[in-house]
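Fold Annotation — chain and its backbone

Encoding — discrete vocabulary of local shapes
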Amino acid sequence: MPTTHPPKLPLRIRRVSRFLDFTCLLLIVTLPLLVAIYWGIADPKTLVVRANLSPDAMLGTLLPWQRLAAGFMAEIPPCLLLTGFWYARKCFRLFASGYLFTTDATFCLYRFSSWAMASAIASIICSSLGSVLMTLQNPPGLRYLAIGISSDQVFLLLFAAVVWLMAGVIRQGQILADENAQFI
């Protein structure tokens, strides 16, 4: 935390920042567990569709090791995003304390956007690998590699790019403010 005293902020900014801090923490704690539960109990045909395949692409049964391996692959993108939420949470804590345009807050925004981009890219890769895992028990010639890009992945990439750019603009403003302060 910076050592200078923060300016007084409107109560609304502090409250929303605290709420978002709590929401990020709640997601960090619960989302991996919910994904694991989903992959543990979901119907195999539903899981096959989540891997960008048609429901009848998997010819046999879904073996426990396949469910576990595909479930592990499905955990990677949300965990990357939740790492970003950890940085977002740090940023919201700074905001709640009154530190808005600081180097620390900018760093947290950069880190959030980087992890969100990594999550979107990993989502494309992991769903493709999931399609291979789900059809691995099929006879040769009937195994699939399905590569799909969803609007959710594109939106997350765009959102992450916007946050990354905003962090860059804020950082540039900090540099200009520091230069102007030296002239006075």
